[in-house]
Each structure stands twice: as C-alpha cells, then as structure tokens.
Amino acid sequence: MSALTRVMKFLKPYKWEVFSAMILLALTVCVDLYIPLLVKITIDQGVAMKNMEVIVNTSLIMIGASILSAILAIANTVFSVRTAQNFAADVRKAVYHRIQSFSFGNLDTYQTGRLLVRLTSDINQLQMIVQISLRMFIRAPLTVIGSISIMVAMNRQLAMSILLLLPLTLILAAVFVRVAQPLFMKIQKKLDNLNQVLQENLAGIRVVKAFVRGDYEDRRFNDANTDLMKESFKFAQITSMLLPLLRLLTNLSTVAVIYFGGLQTIGGSFTVGEIMAFINYLLSTMFPLSMLAMVAAQFSAANVSAERVMEVIEATPQVQDKSNATNLTKINGEIAFEDVYFSYSGNYAEPVLKNINLVAEPGQTIAILGATGSGKSSLINLIPRFYDVTRGRVTIDGLDIRDVTQNSLRSHIGMSLQEVVLFTGTIRDNIKYGRSDATEEEVIAVAKAAQAHEFIMNFPKGYDTIVGQRGVNLSGGQKQRIAIARALLVKPKILILDDSTRFVDVETEAKIHDALKEVMKRSTNFIIAQRVSTVLNASKIVVLNNGEIVAEGTHYELMKTSPIYREIYKSQLGNGGDDDE
Prior knowledge:
There is one protein chain. The chain is α/β, with parallel strands linked by helices. It has two domains: 3-313, ABC transporter transmembrane region fold (Up-down Bundle); 335-548, Rossmann fold, CATH 3.40.50.300. 62% of the residues lie in helices and 10% in strands.
C-alpha cells in the first residue's frame, strides 16, 4: 500500500463531505456536457433554419444551464475546501502528536528543520492534492468518458479516427510523471537542507555575530538556496514543456475534426452544428487529459510528501510503555543502577556507559563529576527514561522503571536540563509550566529558593514580564534560575540538576545551594556540576571517566583514595585549605 493511500485514511471522518463533493461534481459534468448539444440544436435547427424561436429558447436554456453549473461548482468547491482543510489539520495534529511521543533517541534522528518541513510544506502538498482531487481529478475522467460516449454516438467513424491521438496524450503524461516524481523528491530534500541552515542560523545568530561568521553563513545559505533553485528550475522546465506539447495534440485533433467532419458535411452525412458540438466535446476530452497529466505530477509530488509524513506518523518511539505498565504512585525515591550499559546506537561494542552500579537513598545528594564526554548527562537521562538502558536496569524503590508508565514516572521527577528552554509567555507561566495549578505564594517561594525572585522583581512587570522566544531577553544565569524554580515547583521526590548553574556566578551559586538544602532533604538529588566547590558537601560524589565509575564516596574519602578527584579538586581550588588528603 502506497504512502499516499495510507495517509488518505485521515479522510474517513469526512466521507459524507467527500461523497457530497463527488455528487455535486458529477452533476456539474452532466450539465456541462449538455451545453454542446444545445449549441448543435441552436445552429442546426435555429440558425440554419432561420428559426428565431429555437435560437431564443435554446439560448435561455443554455443560460440556465450555465448558472446551474456555476452553482453546483461553487457548492463543490465549498465541500472540497472544507474537507481538504480538515484533512490537513488532522494530519498535522497526528504528526505533532507523534513527535510529542518521541523519545530522545527519535529526536536525535529527526532534526528540527526536517520535522518543520514535514509539518508545513509536505502537509500543504497533501492538502492541495485532496482539494484538487475533489475538484478536478474526479471531474477529468467523468468528462472524458461522457464526451467520448457522446462523440461515438454522434459519429463513430470520426470519433475513432480522432481518438487515436488520445494514447499519445496518455503516454506523454506517463513520461512526465515518471520524470517529475524523483525531481520533486530532490526538491523536498533541498528544502529540508535550506530550512535546517536557516533554523540553525536564526537560533545561533548571536554566535554568528560574535565570531564574525556572517559571510560564512551567507555562503552556506546561498549554497542551499542555489541547490533548491536548480532542482526547482528543472521541475519547472519539465512542466513548461508538457503544456505546449499537449496543446499541440489538441490543435491537431481540432484540425482533424474540421477536415474530416467538413468532408462528411459536404457529403451531407454531417451537419455544421454537429461539427461545432464535436469540437466542443473534443476539447472537453483533451483539456481534462492535459490537466490530468498536470495533476498526475502533483500526485507524484504528493506521494513523496506522503512518504515523508507517514515516516513520522508510523515511526515507533524508541521508549514505550509496556502493555501491562502500572502507574507509579507514592515513592520513597531510592534510585539504583544495576549493571547498567548504555549505547545511543544500541551497539554493545560502543557503550557510552558501562558497568554502572550506583545507589542513591532518599534525602541523599549524588554529585556527578567527570570530563566532557564522560557520560554524565547520559547517566541522568536514564532516570526519567529519556533513553532505555542497553543492558541492566534502573530501579526506583526496587521497581524497574520500564515496568511503570513514563508519565507517572516523570511526574515524580523535577529536572533542570543542561540546555535551558523557556517558552514565550510570562516568567510566571514558565515557572508554572510543570504545575499550572500552583499558587502565587508557591511560585514566589521556589523563585526565592532559586535566587530568581530578586532579579524578577527588578523588571517593571515582575512575574508578568514577557519572556521572549527561547528567553532571548534574559541572561544565561537568569534563565537557569527560572529553570531551577520550575523544577522545584513540582515538588519532586527526585531532583535532577544537570549543570544548571554554569552561567551563575560563584556567590549566587553558593546561595542557590544553601537555599536548596532544606528542599533536598525531601528528595533524592542528582547534581552534575563543573565546579567542585558546589558539591563538597554532597552525600556521595561519583567520578565518571570514559563512561565508567572510577571513584565514589564523600569529598574526604575521595581526596584520600582517588587521584582523578584530587586532580580535579586541585586544578580548581588548589589545596583550598584542605589538608586532610
């Protein structure tokens, strides 16, 4: 089953609208096919016989038929547009919903820019093909079949000689479709690349300016833009060649009708009115076939878009709930890593984490240190099941986290991630993002704990200050403190702070950790920190190196037993007044 066929399942809720559009279209075709017969009557029985009454009566009937055709066409358009819009909205909703269900592993595969193209350009292409189908693609075969039937009934010999040109039209259309489809696939890929470059540039515009890389980014954009232009130009060239060729076939067919029909008229077996009607029906045959070829190209493009859209809709989230998964209700918060191995590719030969055995008791603070790339963030991302372990297991209160639902698991976890993401809205909205029913007092309390209340109140509108896109009007430290407040507001039993104070000065960082001491007594805490000074009082310090735990213990224990920890400590603080090593 083709991707286009599969995506059309989204039309099922609108089957009555589709049926109504088709009936209205069929009636429109019937009325339009009746008009050339009226032209024949007007010429043969009115003009040729000089019968004014026939001319007037048939003209009035033609006017009425034209008005009826217009009304039916308008009604068909209303149903077609409404159906296409609803269809596109449902597909867009399905794609967005699927993206929301993706695990981090899926999001690593699908880049943001590529997903945006699928949600916009590709779905717009599908919307257009639905609308075209209900207005033109169905009309074309009905018109062709009706016109050919009437022409055969009028003059079988002339109809057969003219219809020999139809296979040429169909062959031309088939060749066009065969060439157009791969071209459109290339166009969409080039559009993906252009959108990715644009998205990266706009997101990192400050970095671009800071490193004076405007010219380089211009070249990147121009290269992607030129590639898209070249592929689009090839597609346009093919399209521009098709219409003149189809018009040539139509004109040759018209000349043939006039010549052979004229010979029969001179012989007395055909009338002038019949020639006029025959030409009208011929045009009614050739024009829809020409449009059908163009629409066929659109179908080829839509099939490509359907494949890209269905690829997302039918993608399987790498992390899923088991069919018998239970809801995790009240917990104490004991976290255990048991013989954990983890690889982003699922390849045992290339583990990011290996042989991780670690226990965190309720109320404890586990600090994780290590060089860049040692696996710190990978480790804490396993706790809320952003990724699943490759081997071993992670448990909460002895229960494997894969046996509980993701939502219930994450409802007990508060996280301040390494990359802070704020949403357009007020500062209050961002703090309440994980708990919209929180009171104003609770919002202020967590803001104070995160050392954010003071700078928030310095804004003219305080907590009603609008946060720009991605927090553009806040400093890095301010964004991090709001993110910490957001994590605290959910009152988590498990608190994870992933390098969440790296943009905060040492004094403010110390205040944050002092303020969090009381809060952390009620939760199990994991802190990834770059500064040793902030984790000296942690219940347990874990040192990672190349994905393995190489040291574990309190500050004083590690100063005596771990050369790596001592090296980290001395590189940042010197002896720091600590002579207990």
